[in-house]
Amino acid sequence: MSRFPAEALSRITLGTVQFGMPYGKAKPTLPPDARTLAATLDAAVDGGITCLDTAGNYGDAESRIGGWLRGRRDRPLIVSKLPPVDRPDEVVPGHVDTCLAASLAALGVDRLDGYLVHRADDLHRPGVADRLRAAVEDGRIRTFGVSVYEPQQLDRALAVAGIGAVQLPASVFDQRFADAGLIGRCADRGIVVFVRSLFLQGALFLEPDRLPPHLQPLQPAMRHLRAIAAEAGCPLASLALAAVLTLPGVTSAVIGVGSPQELCDNLAACKAMPPDEAAAAGARKAAGGLPEAILDVRRWPAYSGRSGS
Ligand SMILES: NC(=O)c1ccc[n+]([C@@H]2O[C@H](COP(=O)([O-])OP(=O)(O)OC[C@H]3O[C@@H](n4cnc5c(N)ncnc54)[C@H](OP(=O)(O)O)[C@@H]3O)[C@@H](O)[C@H]2O)c1
């Protein structure tokens, strides 16, 4: 049986929801044109990023990535996701195989390195985990797992046999999964842990006194973080990256960008992370304790009527 090649994984994974739909609830941006998209992907690979995170329900992100992949001799690792079943009360036979086939076709590849159940509860529908294990067996995917929003979703998923990768939100503001011991449990079992929401959809970079009303509770923490970054002599993004990448068990940070420049900034920020772990720990302490209504982006007002991405 195959497994996810964690040893080949870069500390940053490029998130691609931004390629297929308007994104960034703090400051939404539109998907890039074809040239910018190719420039972003080229810059990612040239900068040492070895993995892309995408999903069957990120608009046309998969087929746009597929267009870029065509003609390349080598390709980055690709993790995609199983779109939610439309009707949550229905069991849809063939959903896994149909959606997986669609992702493989859109991307133009014959195997995915990881395939995550996008809506965590779908993993527990009859037949879903069985079909995912079958896809690992016959080589359509290297490993499967789940993308979660809440610690209890991960706790439940870890009871499912064969899980090899998970994606969860964590940031300098949010250590719920680490505090619950869940990241450590994944690491102990050799499960690859992807972390997203490091920048809270870009909110981290807004000026503290220009936050939209629903993000006002971030203000004191953001001022604190700016002061800690200044003291450590590193960019704010470096501090935010260090706060997550120094958590034991975190394998890679999934970060989406609005432009190739942001990607280059993030690669530079990764290199400029403070060498002293005390700065990261201090930042986590200074920025923790925020209410879930801030930490869970699905609960932000701009999300009403939309499913999470
Ligand atoms: N349920 C799931 O599985 C799920 C949910 C959400 C996301 N994801 C994945 O995770 C990826 C990241 O999404 P996220 O929600 O976690 O977002 P994030 O990484 O917290 O923030 C990304 C946003 O931050 C801004 N940004 C990034 N680098 C920047 C820089 N150097 N300077 C200024 N702004 C910068 C960009 O917004 P602007 O364009 O506004 O500048 C970008 O859209 C997505 O692409 C997707 O692949 C998965």
Provide structural commentary:
An 8-stranded parallel beta barrel has the order 1-2-3-4-5-6-7-8, surrounded by 4 helices. It has helices at residues 17-20, 34-46, 61-69, 95-107, 128-137, 151-157, 176-179, 182-188, 219-232, 236-245, 260-271, 277-287, 292-295, and strands spanning 12-15, 51-53, 77-82, 114-117, 144-147, 163-169, 192-196, 252-255. It has a domain at 6-206 and 248-258: TIM Barrel. It is built from 13 helices and 8 strands. Strand 2, helix 3 and strand 3 (77-82) form a beta-alpha-beta unit. It has 309 residues and is an alpha/beta fold. It binds NADP nicotinamide-adenine-dinucleotide phosphate (NAP). NADP nicotinamide-adenine-dinucleotide phosphate is lined by residues 15-18, 23-24, 27, 29, 53, 81, 118, 147, 167, 196-202, 205, 237, 254-258, 262, 265-266, 308-309.
